[in-house]
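Researcher: Re-running this chain for the archive, since the previous output was lost when a drive failed. Same request as before.
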Amino acid sequence: MFVDDRHEPNGAQCDRQLAKFCGAMLQSLCAALAVILSFALLTPANAQQQAVPVGTVYAERKPIAQTRDFVGRIEAIDRVSIQARVKGYLEAVLFKEGDVVKKELLSMKSKRARFRRQSSRHKARLSAPRRPRP
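Model: Regenerated structure tokens:
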């Protein structure tokens, strides 16, 4: 602790306090140095000579495909609505969701019996003579 000269007629007490402070600092430095040296001396000399086991792999040249992973959602640009032209029951669906379907490609099969009955009714209507409207 330092005391300025205004409180003390002579600087003798200030010099004594400075000497105490410097002595205390020197003692702490010596103690710290002693602790550090004791740890260095307690460490066995052969500890540096013991090998630590590690795994090794030989380097090889291999082709690497550059890939990147992303998290996200995708949505189709085009949407298609599939509707039947005639009434009936489906026998088979020839595509799976997400498959690429080309134009004019067979995608579904319907039961033929009902389709044939409807078809024959429509043909009969078309071939029947028309009555004139009043």
